[in-house]
Fold SET domain-containing protein.
Amino acid sequence: SPPSPKCARSPPPHPFHASLTTCLSPHSSFSHFPWTHPPYCLPPISPSLPPYCVFTHAALFLSLITTPDFASTTFLNPFLHFPPKPFFAPARLAVPRPYAVRDFPGKGKGAVATRNIAKGTAVLVDRVSVLSEAEFPPGVGGKEVEGLLEVAVRRLGEPERVRGLARRGGRGMGVVEEVVLTNSFGVEVGGRGFMGLFVDVARFNHACKPNAFIHFSPTTLSMTIWAARDIKPGEEITITYSAAGMTSKERLETLEKVWGFACTCSLCTSSTEELGASDANREEIRSLQEKVIDLAQQGQFRKSVAAAERMFSLIEEEGLTEQMGDMYEVPAQLYYRIGDLYKALEYFRKARHEIDGYGVAGKLGEEKIRELEELIQQIEREMEKKRTRKAKAKVKTNRKR
Ligand SMILES: C[S@@+](CC[C@H](N)C(=O)[O-])C[C@H]1O[C@@H](n2cnc3c(N)ncnc32)[C@H](O)[C@@H]1O
């Protein structure tokens, strides 16, 4: 069908914005800016519901599967930031890449460190290649979703980079579907759940006690892999696909069910005693999370802070530090309440680092950083006042002598 008269006559008021929602004609050459292809849409399941479409930017190696309203609002952000701002690549990004991809028996390919990687270094920043809604309404079936995924990959500049991630074949599904299902990470963008395929991150294997961790930025749609501890050349770089605080049994079940593999990481193949000790730690972490909050609510701040310290030391022991970042603000507040300004400052700084230390904060993150920054400055002023009072008191005593 020809472009609607509305589209043909008046250019959209905003170059990105209105074009997608008002001019979704597959035959109109200017209706799909900023995408390099006309959106490919399924027929809407009902006149009141928006259709699901593929939006591709081939040169950016990016395909989105979402509704036109979402594509023209939330997903504009990354485009407004292109070319990427300096923060897109963290200052501590290891360039050139400090790893190589090689075979790991029983796990397929994986990433091995090719030089020393210091804790806190960004090993890799990888922008998403296929970002698909995590859930579709009942009217959109498996076959339809498979069709959308096929188009999403075919339209990318180098579809073989995605197809090449396939390992098994079979399992009653197509190559693209298998790749997306076995390599995507659940991420949140604009309050909605998505499955994101990051072709370079996809080569990093899982470990239950990893030496690196992933952090997703909804602002740049990129995933960063950070070194959680110093990594030596020849060591495999691993991340964790499961949530913190799970016991080995729960992890094995989740990895099997969600990711479709039986974990053979060093923890899962360790002795019964070692695995038992790790399980006990993780169960304790889970119960301490509740205990810290309960004790704080009962006004038992000193006990709560002791429980928080114990929890953080267990988390460190289990190599899960990064997954607990949002917990730092709790001990920070508690230490402030009991008057330990030094420790309060340490934890508020950790909480701030969790947000702004890992790439892009996003709008909510920026507000939170401002809030934390004010608290940090307030504590620093209080500490300065204390120091001045102490110094004055000392001078007075010396004079009396
Ligand atoms: C995101 S990919 C990682 C890269 C993959 N090994 C490859 O060859 O491309 C996830 C797949 O790697 C394998 N894998 C990752 N971690 C593993 C682990 N700890 N134990 C066994 N297999 C693992 C599984 O086949 C899983 O489905």
